[in-house]
Amino acid sequence: MTTERPARRLPGLVGVVGWFAILVAGIAMIGAGVPTQNDVGQSVGGSPALVTLGAFLLVADLVALRGFVIVQPNQARVVVLLGRYRGTLRTAGIHFINPFAKRTLVSLRIRNFDSDSLKVNDAVGNPIEIAAVINWQVHDTAQALFDVEDYIVFVSIQAETAVRHVASEYPYDAYDEDRASLRANADEVMSTLQGELQQRLNAAGVTVLDTRLRRLAYAPEIAGEMLRRQQASAVVAARKRIVEGAIGMVEDAVHSLESQRIVELDARARATLVSNLLVVLVSDRGAQPVVNSSAMP
What is the pTM of this model? Predict the structure, then answer.
């Protein structure tokens, strides 16, 4: 596994000053080495060696132009010379490196991966559609370039694989309160997804910053049935709450009647009163009062 390290470089200002110094020296040598003519038209002085050296300096100076590298904020340049990794430039600004070295741009900015909607069977076998948004960033440029073939493609494939695997580990809805579900425990699911995805992407020098579900739904072929099941569960829960409240109200009513001596209730009358109150309170329709005329003179 390759590990990132700083590349050897010269500060850009030093490189620019040196480049201009060599340029001036080359021009001066060529100027000094070119023969001049006297008043009678004869060539005087001159040095072919100086001209050759000056020309060599100018060619070298031209080649040295390729050694200047500009690094923008949140970007890096990976330097490779003769097939060997020589380091990474991370500091923003202008630098001078070996002009024959290959430099590859790697972005250090945060990126988003928006997965496609994937059809997966959840932990209980129900087909669901799920999609996630993953924020990631390169933290080791050497690993990203040299340890995987294409780190961007690697991230996308591993992200979809992790989403599929995590979705199959949880049910969409958990009717057992002790079991986590995709819909009710999104934070736990996302934490599991982030941890699993980070393990997969360590080889590519990538850090997973955040994961969020973008889509979570039953597959169309079972969506209708599951909606009716959810509605039935909601109705049962609501009825249970209504019954619990009605029992408390009936208990308070009977206790108040007896404690204030408003009416004397025997066991049969108490049972009738309780039954009538429960019918009134639990029914989802308005109660119709009935007057018992047999008790009137």
Answer: 0.68
